[in-house]
Amino acid sequence: MKQYKLVAFASFYTLIVLIIAAQIWGESGFLHPLIENINLYVRELRNMHTPLFHQSYDNYLQLFPGLLLLGLKIGGVKGKFGWKRLLTFIMLSIILTQLVVGILKLTTSVLRPDESNYFSFPSGHTTAAFMTATLLYKEYGFKTCWVGIVAYAAAIVTGMTRILNNRHWLIDVIVGAALGILLTEAAYRLVKIIFKDRGLIRRND
After folding, report:
1. What secondary structure letter does DSSP report for 86?
2. Of 72, 133, 148, 197, which has the fewest beta carbons less than 10 angstroms from its beta carbon?
3. d(Cα 120, Cα 105) in Å, to the nearest integer?
4. pLDDT digit string (tens) for 90-116?
5. Phi then psi for 81, rounded to 5 degrees?
6. Which among 68, 40, 63, 46 is positioned nearest to 124, based on CA atoms?
7. Would you call 200 helix, strand, or coil by DSSP?
8. What is the spatial distance between Cα 38 and Cα 44, in angstroms, rounded to a whole number?
9. Angstrom distance (rounded) from CA 139 to CA 144
10. Considering only CA atoms, which of 184, 186, 137, 129 is closest in space to residue 161?
11. What is the distance between the alpha carbons of residues 114 and 193, in angstroms, rounded to a whole number?
12. pTM score, two decimals?
């Protein structure tokens, strides 16, 4: 079973890398026509069914898992990490996601669906939402499956709302979600290297 998960993970992120490469190359990218057709199809569905949709809750929902994490920690609910290790984990996750998303937005220059600017790819809101969801899951996911369900449900709704608000294409959101999880996992590995067994409350890290 573990082998199948590894193959699925590798296949999915290989596709994400190919999509990112295609967006960087622009119209000369070999996947560009497929990406454009998918994006336009989803936008047509949005314009057909919810053309007047406009909500701002996605600006706050992206932070909900992170705020819940800090609230539980401050409230004394024991998680997996001590404060120093957790804060390092949070900071590394923020730095990695902001750096990668910022570079991609500048290098790809994809026009938003609402044509407001050329910083559409990838979705920063979605990346942040999945980053905070993964942070919460890593700290408290061992307690109950509901932690992961609530965290990632908030992240998924954030991504969907970015599409409904006509601020992002579907591919922006998919890649944003993938980056949010992957870069937070990378920060998790870095923290393990830096701290080793220090700062662990629950020792199954």
Report:
1. H
2. 197
3. 7
4. 999 999 999 999 999 999 999 999 999
5. -115, 155
6. 63
7. strand
8. 10
9. 11
10. 129
11. 43
12. 0.94
